[in-house]
Amino acid sequence: MSDNWRIYLSGEIHTDWREQIIAGAKDAALPVRFSAPVTHHEASDDCGVAILGGETEKFWHDHKGAQVNAIRTRTLIDKADVVVVRFGEKYKQWNAAFDAGYASALGKPVIIMHGPDHAHALKEVDAAALAVAESPDQVVKILRYVIDGALEGYTDQKQAAE
């Protein structure tokens, strides 16, 4: 397949899971382009007031930032072929849950990634996903399979012509 698949990487911003997926996809020579929200926490929080002017109340400060960030998020999810949403251990990622629901409502294939400790808390989110992975490596393997039809350990794989 020569066309690039557009993969949106949503979710926690405190670990290197995005870099691991990007490196794994590069190693697998997958025809993909990645996008993501702004992952610089302070810039993401302050973008609204930095661009549109200050606010005296924290609610309106956060509201402006959320709206400006939503322009990016919604646009990139709309354009994505696959949405990967990572729920980390340290913080509650309400925005990640929203992104998963938004992508699902648009009919986008969603891959959820989290550890086993979150399985109960995220059961409804997981139920809406097409795959639930625990590691970046598993996400790369899913992408390799759906894009190239290649499955590790299987030889003589024949892929349908597109």
Features:
162 residues; alpha/beta; five-stranded parallel beta sheet; 6 helices; elongated
Short description:
The protein has 162 residues and is of the alpha/beta class. It has a domain at 5-39 and 80-148: Rossmann fold. Helices cover 47% and strands 14% of the residues.
Question: What is the secondary structure topology, with strand pairs?
Answer:
Layout: E1 5-11, H1 17-27, E2 32-35, H2 41-52, H3 58-79, E3 82-86, H4 94-105, E4 110-113, H5 123-128, E5 131-133, H6 136-148
Commentary on this structure:
By secondary structure, this protein is α/β, with parallel strands linked by helices. It has a domain of 104 residues: 3-Layer(aba) Sandwich (Rossmann fold), CATH 3.40.50.450. 47% of the residues lie in helices and 14% in strands. The chain contains six helices and five strands, in the order βαβααβαβαβα. Strands 2-1-3-4-5 form a five-stranded parallel sheet, sandwiched between helices. Helix 1 links the parallel strand 1 and strand 2. The chain is elongated and about 65 Å long. The mean pLDDT is 92.
CATH class of the domain at 5-39 and 80-148: Alpha Beta
CATH topology of the domain at 5-39 and 80-148: Rossmann fold
The percent range for strand residues is 5-15%
The share of residues in helices is 40-55%
Mean pLDDT: 92
How many H/I helices? 6
C-alpha Rg (nearest Å): 17 Å
Biggest pleated sheet: 5 strands, parallel
Order of helices and strands: EHEHHEHEHEH
